[in-house]
Design goal:
- The protein is α/β, with parallel strands linked by helices.
- The protein folds into two domains: 2-121, Rossmann fold, CATH 3.40.50; 127-216, Winged helix-like DNA-binding domain superfamily/Winged helix DNA-binding domain (Arc Repressor Mutant, subunit A, Orthogonal Bundle), CATH 1.10.10.
- It has eight helices and twelve strands.
- The strands form three sheets. Strands 2-1-3-4-5 form a five-stranded parallel beta sheet, sandwiched between helices. A four-stranded antiparallel beta sheet has the order 6-7-8-9, covered by helices on one side.
- A hairpin with a 4-residue loop joins β7 and β8 (140-143).
- The longest helix has 17 residues, at 105-121.
- It is elongated.
- The chain binds calcium ion.
- Calcium ion binds at residues 8-9, 51, 53-54.
- Calcium ion is lined by residues 8-9, 51, 53-54.
Length: 220
């Protein structure tokens, strides 16, 4: 899952980025309205966290343009306590939810899960592949029905693979799914995650395709 945070307050941004990365999301940060538009034009996001009072271009204008261009990701607006007008304008412009600053990071995480669940709920809420099952909303993985404890990056890696179980992913594609742009990614980072994931779910589950990348084992 890839998120975009649009926020000019560096302290708020740092705390949100940290919390979302610990929760296993890849998250990018745009510091002003123009940067946000550029990101939304060039990348596909699963959800957007949008501050409204932004330098260079107002958050409402960013949201209007995004929806006008067919952008469909859920948007949570982040607004000041007294700005009821802003909230209404934001919802009218196509936001899905809002949070009033200062907000609790656990509440933000819960709102994000709820919106992502609503969106994926129309498709398939739980992915299964052979002995494996992955529930994105509950953040749970089971192997033959027994729960497997994965750290967030292992979870994100398995989710990427299980969403498209016949596809071979290159390391670069997996890095994009697991990390936001600002984050350091070591040259063998994906190998390390694959190794630790294999230890937990069985080495045979994740197949190395020499010279290309990784996919799940074939089954059925
Ligand atoms: Ca602001």
């Amino acid at each position: 899952m890839r998120l975009l945070l649009v926020e000019d307050d560096e302290m708020i941004a740092e705390s949100v980025l940290g919390a979302m990365r610990r929760a296993g999301y890849a998250i990018d940060w745009a510091e002003d309205g123009r940067a946000a538009e550029l990101s939304l034009d060039n990348d596909v996001y699963d959800l957007v966290l949008l501050d409204l009072g932004l330098p260079k271009k107002d958050g409402i204008d960013v949201l209007n343009a995004y929806r006008r261009n067919g952008g469909a990701a859920p948007v949570i607006i982040l607004t000041a306590r007294d700005a009821i007008d802003e909230r209404i304008r934001g919802l009218d412009a196509g936001a899905d939810d809002y949070l009033v600053k200062p907000f609790d990071l656990d509440e933000l995480a819960a709102r994000i899960r709820a919106l992502l669940r609503r969106r994926t709920g129309q498709k398939q809420p739980v992915y299964t592949h052979g002995e494996l099952a992955l529930d994105p909303a509950a953040h749970e993985v089971t192997l033959n029905g027994a729960p497997v404890a994965l750290v967030p990056r292992e979870f994100a890696l398995l989710q990427a693979l299980i969403e498209e179980p016949t596809r071979v992913f290159t390391k670069t594609e997996l890095e994009e799914k697991l990390y936001g742009w600002g984050e350091e990614v070591g040259s063998n980072t994906i190998e390390v995650h694959v190794h630790s994931l294999r230890r937990k779910i069985g080495a045979e589950q994740v197949v190395t395709v020499r010279g290309v990348g990784y996919r799940l084992k074939r089954c059925g």
